[in-house]
Amino acid sequence: MAKRAIRGEAKMADIIDGKAFAAKIRAEVKNDTEKLINEKQVNPCLAVVLVGENPASKVYVGQKSKMAAECNIKTKDFKLDSSIAQETLLKLVDELNNDSSVHGILVQLPLPKQIDERKVIDTITVEKDVDGFHAINAGRLSIGGAMLKKAFIPCTPLGSLLLLKDRVEDLRGKNAVVIGRSNIVGKPMSQLLIEESCTVTVVHSKTKNIEQVCAQADIIIAAIGRAEMIDANWLKEGAVVIDVGINRISIKKEDGSEGSKIVGDVDFESASTKASMITPVPGGVGPMTIACLLRNTVTSAYRFAGLDDPREN
Ligand code: GUN
What we know:
Layout: E1 14-15, H1 18-40, E2 45-51, H2 55-70, E3 74-80, H3 86-97, E4 104-107, H4 117-123, H5 135-143, H6 146-150, H7 155-167, E5 175-179, H8 186-195, E6 199-203, H9 210-214, E7 219-222, E8 240-243, E9 247-252, E10 258-263, H10 268-272, E11 277-278, H11 285-304
Parallel strand pairs: 1-11, 2-3, 2-4, 5-6, 5-7, 7-8, 8-11
Antiparallel strand pairs: 9-10
Bound molecules: guanine.
């Protein structure tokens, strides 16, 4: 769809189709992968490490491995017991760091309590940190400019930014409010938007008058992890809404039995009456996260092969 200026008049929001956009990125990733195989005989490979039985994490890593295979990216899957000792996990990361056939290492978060997440993340070689969570990659993003080009950018904020850049004509000077301050989404998202010359405010659970702050936003990034918290009352007319939330809620099915469904941090129906554009859940940011992970993995493989990055972010 064509880019457009953010506009002021009311109408039902256009849906930003993350599923379709992610499919386009995966097609590019597949192309780049095949080129690398043909020209350098190098097959991009992602190591996927899952610790424990977190049901959501199991689903996510399953999707990541499946989508990788569809793009001809190899995966090495490791499923570890939740009681694993930190030293054992660090040893595995070290082995993967030294395995020249592996170009990207993903340790699915959250990790069990006995493990220091930061220690594990910072043990991953910076050049294989396709999640972009290593302190050095986070620092490069924070510094921006030429440093950003060397960094791996965390996949959910990157996917969200690509959707915004595809649909919003000019991000410069726009008021962007990021709801949530996590290291995985809120903080890197705010830095990416600063790099795009947005005026960025980060709000969170302790922010006073959070609704009024959000009502000033041309762009809202909702990443607070609370089901359907943000409704039309939080929005300025014509705002662009990117919903990062993935929350499972209980519902009563038509036959009266208990069921569940996935919803975002945004009340989609309500917000659609005021937003100009909005991402759905599912089918918005979620598929973009995986597509960007695969893109980062192929970029890593190109760098290890001594080639320029196949695409700019
Ligand atoms: N947990 C939630 N999101 C992510 C992600 O993007 N990467 C990893 N490794 N863990 C996560």
